[in-house]
Design goal:
mainly alpha, two-stranded antiparallel ribbon, two-stranded parallel sheet, 6 strands
Amino acid sequence: GRLIGFAARYRSAVWPGYTHTRRAMPSSAGLWAAALAEGLIDSAESLGGIWPRVDRSPLGSAAGYGVPLPLDRRAAARALGFGGLDLHVTSVQNGRGKLEAAVLAWCVDVAHDLSRWATDVVLLSGEEFGLLKLPASLATGSSIMPHKRNPDLFELTRARAAALEGDFAQVLAIKAKLTSGYHRDFQLLKEPLIRGLERSRDMLAIARHVVAQVEVDRFRSSEALTGDLLATDEVMRRVQAGRPFRQAYREVAALVKSGTSFPPAGAQSLLRVRRSVGGAGALELGELRARIRRARRWNVALQTKFDRALTRLAGRGR
């Protein structure tokens, strides 16, 4: 949600889009933030695919072969608020590690989005780019250079993403190549799962705290909208005037090669020609906000169901 707020505030802040740190085409700070927000929303929505596996009761499976008693496993599942049952008792043990891996895979997916955001901030706030500005509260000093301001929060976010991949890999390695039934190896699944969840929580908390404090340097952004960055716009202008694309492309390529500079363009004119859905001039932030609302309603419904089950078990309700 805060990334969407950032996108709304800087939707008109046009700056260069980069490929492999090289200037590619005009883009905007709003498009950058909106794209990152959409990636996180995709991850939030994908929880719906994992949840049915979490929402199954394993009770009554014992050590993997059940017990010689007429247990009503479905009644126990309903009493605990589960949506269903792990049907065959041996599948409960065979599934150990799979659920932990699925949860950590989701965490890694989120971590990669946060790592991309953090890496972009580190890069674009550097002196060579200068498109983003970090307040002093988000930077630390150097042990030897008094003028240095390090983007530690963002670098540590990136590092946590890599460490989280290690937690995921550990779970995959522990659960691999085991026979059916219970193994003491499963005891070692808890540590990487809990550690990975804590790392994910910390990364999200940090991102939520700092997003609104990052600012766009509008002057540096507009100053960078010159030179061959506008070459593709010139190609499209000639195409709209009636030239075949191949001819226009070759003409502009020759101009770039000769060192010809293209006249600067204002932010509004650059946004005006990028009005296709999802382009820099048509961010459609309302659609992202609607998706967030749906995801929140889903989360609230599940939390309410869980709380009611705990209330019943504690004897405080019917």
